[in-house]
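User: Let's play a game. I give you a shape written as tokens, and you guess the letters that built it. Ready? Here's round one.
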């Protein structure tokens, strides 16, 4: 039987490696790393987080997409939505003739154009169970790039559902990964889920658990974020926590503690283990990037932060949130956002891009840089070049930072 499902690429790593390096590597970033992640040029100091940019899951997904194009040069190749949330990477894949299918609440509609023999790449954050079934039914060739860390979350959700626990997912209910994760719970008889976005939503659930909020109010509030037929009294009797892998670690831990305390209040310590399970499913790449930026902020000596990544990239938003608590922070999605005295950026929590003037100090400026897990080095390098260009400098002017500046 002809194989139609691929999860491990096509053994074409050596073929696509030079193309990937040419597209996504950056000499400027390499230079920054060689200089110890801190460099000066003129009166600008740039400091790069020790962990930033492409994670292992994204690296793998992008590589498989390139391998897929090589393997099936004559077939129609589709991507279920953006492979990752980065406009540069998605644009390059489209230039290779890969069609990105627009998002839709109706999977039948979304895949209506797919025929037998077409090749469909599933993104790093996975697809819902229903979508996978539709694609399998069509006889298309599936290249599954779902990240191992996402599969690990699914494993936990399956375990919860098998044991009669409702999966409570800290994530954005509309995000592809969270939708895919939530759908796993429904593959078990009686499986249920509830998505919680933040502390505020968690407080409402805690209020219900403690008897302060009624079931009807809770049902209404979470109608968009809970499984069909969700009944708070029955389905919050036993819960298991999971996360969208790219959420803010500190918030996930806070949510876990809030819920644990509410269940302890309601059922007592002796019943807690039968009522409340929690596994931290934030992925290590997300954690490493958040830890690195926190370290950089702790070290101090910076005037502002530039956070680079797609505006709909959850882990980039989390990095921007961390930075914005300490420093003026500009979340930009590409180098062209920097327009001299003005910058186009998306402030934390804002629905769209804004313009800021006078964002860069006139004299000496100490700029911290980080990038989300879906941001390739070439984009980071372009941003660095653009920043240097504002002062008539270029990458060749970068040199090791003087000790009194580094670590101030
Ligand atoms: S952010 Fe984490 S879960 Fe998502 S693709 Fe990267 S490694 Fe995988």
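Assistant: Ready! My guess for every position:
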């Amino acid at each position: 039987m002809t194989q139609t499902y691929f999860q491990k690429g096509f053994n074409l790593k050596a073929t696509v490696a030079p193309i990937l390096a040419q597209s996504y590597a950056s000499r400027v970033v390499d230079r920054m790393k060689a200089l110890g992640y801190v460099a000066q040029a003129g009166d600008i100091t740039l400091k790069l987080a020790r962990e930033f940019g492409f994670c292992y899951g994204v690296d793998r997904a992008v590589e498989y997409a390139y391998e897929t194009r090589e393997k099936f040069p004559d077939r129609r190749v589709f991507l279920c939505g953006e492979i990752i949330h980065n406009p540069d990477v998605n644009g390059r894949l489209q230039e290779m003739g890969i069609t990105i299918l627009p998002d839709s609440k109706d999977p039948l509609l979304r895949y209506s154009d797919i025929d037998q023999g077409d090749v469909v790449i599933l993104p790093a954050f996975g697809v819902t169970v229903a979508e996978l079934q539709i694609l399998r039914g069509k006889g298309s060739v599936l290249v599954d790039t779902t990240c191992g860390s996402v599969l690990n979350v699914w494993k936990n959700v399956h375990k919860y559902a098998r044991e009669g626990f409702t999966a409570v997912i800290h994530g954005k209910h509309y995000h592809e990964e969270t939708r895919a994760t939530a759908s796993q719970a429904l593959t078990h008889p009686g499986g249920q889920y509830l998505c919680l976005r933040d502390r505020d939503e968690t407080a409402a659930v805690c209020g219900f658990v403690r008897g302060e909020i009624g079931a009807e109010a809770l049902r209404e509030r979470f109608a968009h974020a809970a499984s069909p037929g969700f009944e708070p009294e029955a389905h919050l009797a036993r819960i298991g926590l999971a996360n969208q892998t790219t959420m803010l670690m500190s918030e996930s831990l806070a949510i876990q503690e809030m819920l644990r305390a509410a269940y302890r209040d309601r059922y007592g310590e002796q019943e807690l283990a039968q009522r409340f399970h929690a596994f931290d499913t934030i992925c290590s790449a997300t954690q490493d990037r958040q830890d690195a930026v926190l370290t950089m902020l702790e070290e101090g000596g910076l005037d502002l932060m530039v956070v680079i990544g797609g505006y709909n990239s959850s882990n980039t938003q989390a990095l921007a949130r961390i930075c914005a608590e300490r420093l003026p922070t500009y979340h930009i999605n590409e180098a062209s956002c920097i327009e001299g005295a003005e910058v186009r950026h998306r402030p934390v929590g804002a629905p769209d891009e804004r313009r800021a003037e006078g964002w860069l100090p006139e004299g000496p400026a100490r700029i911290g840089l980080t990038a989300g897990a879906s941001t390739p080095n070439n984009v980071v390098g372009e941003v660095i070049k653009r920043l240097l260009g504002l002062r008539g400098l270029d990458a060749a002017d970068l040199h090791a930072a003087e000790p009194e500046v580094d670590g101030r």
